[in-house]
Write a structure and sequence with these properties.
By secondary structure, the chain is mostly helical. It has eleven helices and no strands.
């Protein structure tokens, strides 16, 4: 792979990775047009995703740090409650447990863990099908059209004031299920997260933060799986193009994510849906050609 091809892929990943359209679908389509081999495409995909992760992490670093503190706080409270239970084992009436979920960020962290677990299981179930149809532009096109359908549906949902305090575990399960579908090429991870959040009645500000932060562990997990597949198959590795693509992806995310966050609204979802329809049709035409 030439460096200029990696830079082009990094540019596409950086842009599509932070809007509700499928970045993997675009990369599959562009790789086919550029004639890039599947093994090379998988390896560069790992680095492109890492670039997106770096950019999103920096944009939401304050929230992520607070969530990490909340996670360890939950773990500490559970240990303290376990010790309290042990001390008062023979006198249960005097047990004084501390509240485990005691802030919005601790609630946010629990919701995120539930969504991630659900997304992982869903992606694991879909993985054999995705591997069998890997590189299929028809599947790519169907994924684009499915994303468009969900974005159109969620664009008609009424506005809500449901923040982290009012969000239920069932909402987190629905979000995780939808995000897990993004294991299928052409289905947007961010688009699924936003659509699920809107359908669950979450506020625009909360679901956008939720969906963006969720992309970090999902992309990291997906990269681990892809790295294992490429290593097992003996895929080729070219360091310079991979690093170039990763750098471009990270820079584009850092430059654009602030603006994009301000403009992703219910109404703009219809614009992204229309774009996904066009990309889906293009994928199907190229498959039939």
């Amino acid at each position: 792979m030439a460096v200029w091809q990696a830079i082009l892929l990094g540019l596409v990943q950086g842009i599509t990775g932070i809007v509700p359209v499928s970045s993997s679908g675009h990369l599959n389509l562009l790789s086919r047009i550029l004639g890039i081999q599947d093994s090379v495409s998988y390896m560069i995909l790992i680095f492109l995703h890492l670039g997106t992760v770096l950019g999103v992490f920096y944009a939401f670093k304050n929230d992520i740090i607070r969530m990490l503190f909340a996670f360890f706080g939950i773990f500490r409270q559970l240990l303290e409650n376990a010790v309290e239970w042990r001390k008062t084992f023979h006198d249960p009436e005097n047990v004084r447990y501390k509240k485990v979920i005691n802030s919005n960020y601790s609630k946010f962290t629990v919701l995120m863990l539930v969504s991630l677990g659900t997304a992982f299981v869903t992606a694991l179930i879909l993985r054999p099908m995705c591997n069998a149809l890997s590189g299929s532009l028809l599947l790519n096109g169907m994924g684009f059209l499915f994303t468009a359908l969900l974005l159109i549906v969620c664009s008609f949902t009424p506005s809500s004031l449901k923040g982290p305090k009012d969000t239920k575990i069932s909402d987190a399960l629905v979000i995780g299920l939808f995000v897990g579908f993004s294991a299928v090429p052409g289905i947007s991870m961010l688009g699924m997260g936003i659509a699920a959040g809107y359908l669950c009645g979450l506020t625009r500000k909360f679901i956008i933060k939720y969906a963006y932060i969720m992309t970090i562990p999902v992309l990291l997990g997906g990269s681990v799986f892809e790295a294992g597949s490429v290593t097992a198959e003996g895929g080729s590795f070219q360091l310079l193009p991979c690093l170039a693509g990763m750098a471009v992806s990270a820079v584009i995310v850092l430059l654009l994510i602030g603006t994009v966050r301000k403009h992703i609204t219910i109404r703009s979802c219809r614009l992204f849906a229309g774009y996904s329809i066009c990309m889906g049709i293009l994928s199907v035409i190229l498959y039939l050609a």
